[in-house]
Write a structure and sequence with these properties.
The chain has 243 residues and is mostly helical. Helices cover 61% and strands 7% of the residues. The longest helix is centred in the N-terminal third of the chain and has 29 residues. It binds protoporphyrin IX containing FE.
């Protein structure tokens, strides 16, 4: 018999941040292409309009990033726990997860990672999100802010290598975001259904199914999957519901 559990994986502030941020980054990429390659893409009427929209999206992404950081650092207090890979993640976890995505997934093998509120990212996600959220996003925000205020911040621009270096670095980081987006969206569709990982990003709850041999839920003869056991330990009643 199959039992379905729901784990509360993604709190509302994170969901609001994520979709605002995704919308902002996509806007930045499109307007950025318009600004960098106006002969290839020119869809915002004037060049000035593309710059204005790019700057506005940059401000929105910067503010929402600051709120995200405050939330994870001071309200949830889970930034380090969720986003920093452990020694085992680096030693074996990342390789195991890469092996799953490149080979085992296509043979119908099980995902070696099962998300819990305390450990919701697999080792590959942890490493990727750490670089994106704590290195590349702050860098793109910093370089973008310098480019928005070239005249008043010219001393700082000289310290970081001059305007050419700054423009080159900003463009290179933007390319990393484009590459991340493709991989991120592709991997996000590899749940047990293509939209399974989108659900917790929309309503907070992830669906977990496990097979029970005994319909009365007696522990004798019950077929647990490992995820179920871990969720029972990690999930408080407020973070789990059973259907
Ligand atoms: C249209 C664009 C995007 C889509 C469709 C999308 C989709 C998703 C989905 C389905 C998840 C949940 C599954 C998972 O954890 O991997 C997720 C989580 C996440 N995404 Fe995205 N994403 C987009 C853009 C972005 C961008 C631009 C960034 C960062 C710059 C980003 C950063 C993250 C992070 C950090 C998480 C984990 C959030 C948390 O639970 O703390 N995403 N995304």
């Amino acid at each position: 018999m199959k039992q379905t559990e729901y784990i509360y994986l993604t709190p509302m502030p994170v969901r609001i941040w994520h979709w605002l941020n995704a919308f902002g980054i996509v806007t930045l990429i499109i307007t950025g292409i318009n600004i960098r390659f106006p002969d290839i893409l020119n869809i915002f009427g004037t060049y000035k309009a593309a710059i204005r929209l790019h700057n506005t999206a940059g401000v929105v992404v910067s503010i929402s990033y600051t709120l995200w950081l405050i939330y994870y650092l001071f309200i949830a207090g889970t930034l380090a726990k969720l986003y920093i890979p452990t020694f085992n993640d680096i030693k074996t976890g990342i390789i195991r997860q890469v092996f799953f995505y490149f080979f085992q997934y296509f043979k119908g093998g099980p995902n070696p990672h099962h998300g819990t509120p305390d450990n919701k990212f697999n080792p590959m996600q942890k490493a990727a999100y750490l670089v994106i959220m704590l290195v590349l996003l702050p860098l793109v925000i910093f370089s973008g802010a310098l480019l928005m205020y070239v005249a008043p911040l010219r001393e700082v621009i000289l310290v970081v290598g001059g305007i050419k270096t700054l423009v080159g670095a900003h463009f290179l980081i933007a390319c990393c975001f484009c590459a991340f987006l493709f991989v991120h969206i592709y991997l996000a569709t590899l749940g047990h259904t293509p939209l399974a990982y989108f659900k917790p990003m929309w309503d907070g709850w992830e669906k977990v199914e496990h097979a029970h041999a005994d319909p009365h839920g007696d522990s004798h003869g019950t077929v647990h999957d490992e995820a179920s056991d871990r969720n029972r330990v990690a999930g408080s009643p407020a973070t789990m519901k059973t259907v």
